[in-house]
Amino acid sequence: MALEAQNITINVGSKTIVNSASVTVESGSITVLVGPNGAGKSTLLGGLSGHTALSGGRALIAGRDLTQLTPKQLCDQRAVMLQSDNLVFDFTVNDVLRMGLVWQVEASETEKTEVIIDLARKCGIEHLLSRSVLTLSGGEKQRVHFCRCLVQVMGRHERDTPRYLLLDEPTSGQDIANELRLLKLLKEIAVQREIGVFVIVHDLNLAVHFGDIFYIMKNGTLVADGVRDAVMTEDTLSSVYETPVKTELTSSGLRIHTF
Fold first, then answer.
1. Taking the complete model, does pTM exceed 0.90, yes or no?
2. φ/ψ of residue 250, rounded to 5
3. Are 224 and 34 in contact (CB under 8 A)?
């Protein structure tokens, strides 16, 4: 079972932002999308998640077209973290995390609280639970929304329900320690909970360290996809980013150098 985009095209007015893109996100793996600014990455994620209307093609979860699923069915199977948040009300962090409690309304209050506290601790925001989100830094807000997505997909669900996380640059506002905290947590839940992860990452070294499958996008088109060593090559990256890129295989993994 997988989350799939099948030849999706997304137009905004007369401009094609995503051009016939096909993506497969398998359960238990981290699928990474990289590419330069303006490539159409966020729009592709929006189409794959059901947030953005398609001009052509289909997006499916486990073979079912997303347009045929109710909002409740979508929330049961996938959580989405966009680059920007639109929260303008004085919610506490705890309030925001509880917005992710869309699963199993019959779960006890104790169970819901345990899930929130456990994930808040893992995301490094347990000390912020009583704070207003309006008082947080950009990086702290980002971790709160990341945690909300985890709450949504990691609670009690029906047996064998495939679940997916779609994340648009979840570490862009984080310091080094929190970048590693969040990406290590993603890797852990992908493997241990068999959750499929689709993530847009700008830092190529983070991408190659944590990703399993890679897609590269430029000018609205996917130009390469596959495993790391077949996709993240000097020639491909230099062409896509229009700047010299060098790769080096070290004892700790692949390193990408741009200067």
1. yes
2. -110, 175
3. no
Distance CA 108, CA 115 (A): 11
Residue 206 makes CB contacts below 8 A (sequence gap 6+) with 171, 179, 183
Nearest residue to 154 (alpha-carbon basis) of 86, 216, 101, 205: 101
What's the one-letter identity of residue 165? L
Q: What 3 state SS string does the chain have?
A: CEEEEEEEEEEECCEEEEEEEEEEEECCCEEEEECCCCCCHHHHHHHHHCCCCCCEEEEEECCEEHHHCCHHHHHHHEEEECCCCCCCCCCEHHHHHHCCCCCCCCCCHHHHHHHHHHHHHHCCCHHHCCCEHHHCCHHHHHHHHHHHHHHHHHCCCCCCCCCEEEEECCCCCCCHHHHHHHHHHHHHHHHHHCCEEEEECCCHHHHHHHCCEEEEEECCEEEEEEEHHHHCCHHHHHHHHCCCCEEEEECCEEEEECC
Assess whether pLDDT exceeds 60 at residue 158.
Answer: no
> Residue 73 and residue 127: Cα distance in Å, rounded?
32
Round to the nearest angstrom and report the end-to-end CA distance of the chain. 41
pLDDT for 101 beyond 90? no
Radius of gyration of the chain (CA): 18
Structure token pair of residue 155: 């609670």
Which residue has 């779609």 as its token pair? 166
The single residue listed with the structure tokens 């830092």 is 203
Do 36 and 218 meet the contact criterion of CB atoms below 8 Å apart?
yes
Q: Are 23 and 35 in contact (CB under 8 A)?
A: no
At 14-65, the pLDDT tens digits run: 999 999 999 999 999 999 999 999 999 999 999 999 999 999 999 999 899 9
